[in-house]
Amino acid sequence: MIPAVIYAIPAFVLLVVVEALSYRFLPDDDERGYELRDTVTSMSMGAGSQVIGLPWKAVTVLVYAAAFTVAPWQLSPSSPWTWLLLFFADDLAYYVFHRAHHRVRVLWAGHVVHHSSLRFNLSTALRQSWTPMTTLPFWLPLALLGVPPWMILLQQSVSLVYQFFLHTERVDRLWRPVEWLFNTPSHHRAHHGSNNVYLDRNYGGILIAWDRLFRTFEPEGERVVYGLTKNIETHNPLRVAFHEYAATWRDVCSAASWRDRAGYLLGPPGWAPASR
Questions:
Q1: Please, which residues have CB within 8 angstroms of residue 5's CB and are 6 or more apart in sequence?
Q2: DSSP secondary-structure letter at 128?
Q3: CB crowding 253-264: b at 16 or more within 10 Å, else e
Q4: Residue 109 · residue 183 · CB < 8 Å
Q5: Are 202 and 191 in contact (CB under 8 A)?
Q6: DSSP H or E stretch at residue 141
Q7: What digits encode the pLDDT tens for the residues 89-123?
Q8: What confidence tier does 3 reach under pLDDT thresholds 50, 70, 90?
Q9: What Å distances lie between residue 146 and 69, 78, 79, 82, CA to CA?
Q10: 29-33, 134-138, 155-159, 256-260: lowest mean pLDDT where?
Q11: 42-47, long-range: CB < 8 A, 24+ apart
Q12: 2 has a pLDDT exceeding 80
């Protein structure tokens, strides 16, 4: 099964070009805009993620299908209630997935790719991980609830398309009720900030309501500084994709005990033994 988001890629590329041209003709000194090497890196990471992700998607479909067959009930795709349940369940699954990938270092090692750019534009949305294997467990409960696998994959694609449009500085705050309920470019700019106030905030996919509910919400306030707390200073796609895995491995190998090794793997990014 080819993910529906694949069909949106030509539109994504076109919109990246349009946004880049908008900076040429309508520059804004308060916005970072585009830089050629950064954009090429983001596009390369996006292309690589799709090439690697396609065969893994086949594995995902098989696992979801197996879970669906043993579900205690099977929900009907013709019922609007199934789609409504799927919308909220998928968005909650994304929140849990996203939060875990910021708080568990071995998961962060893949997700850090998306935060490695010093800029924030539509091409940043395409800067994706080359290790998609960690996504599967977070949506598996939906199949066990009886949601057909093809519906899960379709809703994932809908969420990804929505989130593409969050990666822009060209859109200011939206109407207040929209900002309260939905994830917006303003909320997502804060999520990509390396400022202390923005770290580990605004994990939502389509809705920002989960962040409000679980107290991980932070509105955009002080000027956002994009990138990592310790930037990697490279445009090499291989280093962007795997630098944190390498750093994690070095820390694990240097650890003095199994407890410390587990801490380096399962603790939050930046974890270190208390003695250090």
A1: 156, 157, 160, 161
A2: -
A3: eebeeeebeebb
A4: no
A5: yes
A6: helix 136-144
A7: 999 999 999 999 999 999 999 999 999 999 999 99
A8: low
A9: 8, 13, 13, 9
A10: 29-33
A11: 42/117, 42/123, 42/124, 42/126, 42/127, 43/13, 43/16, 43/123, 43/126, 44/237, 45/113, 45/126, 45/127, 45/128, 45/130, 45/237, 45/240, 45/241, 46/126, 46/127, 46/128
A12: no
Q: Are 253 and 141 in contact (CB under 8 A)?
A: no
Q: Please name the amino acid found at residue 114.
A: H
Q: Which residues pair with 193 in a beta bridge?
A: 226
Q: Which residue has the tokens 């066990």?
A: 144
Percentages helix, strand, coil for the chain (3-state, rounded to 5) are 65, 0, 35
User: Could you tell me the two tokens for 193?
Assistant: 């900030």
Quote the tokens at residue 197: 């106030």
- Please name every residue paired with 182 in a beta bridge, in sequence order, or none if there are none: 207
Encode 70-100: b = buried (16+ Cβ within 10 Å), e = exposed. eeeeebeeeeeebeebbeebbbbbbbbbbbb
Q: Is the dihedral of CA 239, 123, 21, 227 positive or negative?
A: negative
